[in-house]
Amino acid sequence: MRISVIGCGYLGAVHAACMAKLGHEVVGIDVDEKKIKELSGAVAPFYEPGLEELLKDVQETGRLIFTTDVSAARGSDVHFICVGTPQKKGENAADLTYVDAAASALVPYLSAGELVVGKSTVPVGTAARLAEMIASSAPDVHLVWNPEFLREGHAVSDTLQPDRFVYGVEGGSEDHPAVGILDRIYATPLSAGTPRLVTDHPTAELVKTAANSFLATKISFINAMAELCEAAGADVTRLADAIGLDDRIGRKFLNAGIGFGGGCLPKDIRAFMARAGELGADQALTFLREVDAINMRRRTRVVELTRELCSGSLLGKRVTVLGAAFKPESDDVRDSPALSIAAQLQLQGAVVTVTDPKALENAARRFPELQYEADPESAVTGADALLLLTEWQEYRDLDPHLVGELVSSRHILDGRNVLDKAKWRAAGWSYRGLGRP
Ligand code: NAD
Predict the structure, then answer these.
(1) Known active-site residue 264
(2) What backbone phi and psi angles, to 5 degrees, belong to 322?
(3) 10 to 7, 13, 69, 95, 118: CA distances (angstroms)
(4) C-beta 82 within 6 A of ligand 1
(5) Residues 193 and 207 in one domain
(6) pTM > 0.85: yes or no
(7) Which of the residues 76, 213, 258, 294 could staple to 2 if both were Cys, CB 3.0 to 4.6 A apart?
(8) Are residues 233 and 336 in the same domain?
């Protein structure tokens, strides 16, 4: 089928490449000329494992092109909207200007029988509003909401083999004409057994925000337990292992640490609360305010613990932060807890050096006042304290004896509880985890 993908960021670039991989003819459209130039040369504009190889692979087939010209969407059977929905400045609500602009720009090029498919994460009610807008200018074009669940760092496999598809169509019926068209688009993963659920528009929109809220709640739950473990002298990692063995609870997303960040969870739970308020259902989501507060408290706690590690004062202390991305296998630094902690430490007088295998360029753009060092050995040399804040494999694998030779004092704070504390202590380090004695 012929497909256009409007918005080629973390979501759209991967989606465009994967749709071409599935055999479709794809045009990726973005307003960012630099991004389009890179994508056209099969260069991934951000780090995502496997994406660059995939881009090269599918571009050789001639099935994938990129452009800034939205008129190139003309003639596609399906148009995916993948633009950003960031948090509004100074407010909790989502900024829908990009979604609205993308839909309006697309309308003149739509023809009867085509589908517009929203993949961006939007407040419930957006699909109905856009459907009305499209129907008034392009009759016989259906709008579907097909939320995306990919995880950065696993985006290619999550797109090619997702754990479910949700199609939100007007009325929510399996007989809706859009269902068959999307089934053809996703024929390969569907034939491999991926479940697909057909819902109405608001349910599909809510599936995404509800899923993210649940995940955020699970992380904040275990971080709240970490606070309690610290007060009671218990070990949150063993607690998580034990409660996680109950399969009603499960062990995934129960890793206590510095909390969640990134371009999705924080802004999605805030937008969800804001939308609930508009709908008169704000009480239903007041618990998310606590989820957000627990999450932000972790960052302050790490600053306090670092001060303790540095004998009570941060002034002039050389602190090295291992990791800048909001999670490993990504260069995304949007609302990265690691960088937020690094900036707070610097403000309190520490001399902070940040290192990361992939995210330093993005980090330096966001926090130019911090010092960055790409070479991990140089970054740790002379440090008074090390903070492991993004659990890249290379930091998990650090040898405490070798690193011990480079630092000025053997103090380490394991912000993700991934190091073997006995091994580090045996090598002469003072080790602090979060929620661990
Ligand atoms: P992003 O900022 O990386 O990408 C958005 C892209 O849209 C940018 O390249 C921007 O230039 C482009 N854009 C903006 N306005 C445009 C327009 N009018 N026409 C064409 N292009 C335009 O954001 P992202 O991380 O890819 O997220 C996109 C959406 O997907 C968000 O709603 C997000 O919540 C959702 N989502 C993201 C992920 C993820 O892991 N990143 C996962 C699931 C859902």
Answers:
(1) yes
(2) -90, 105
(3) 9, 6, 20, 18, 15
(4) yes
(5) no
(6) yes
(7) 76
(8) yes
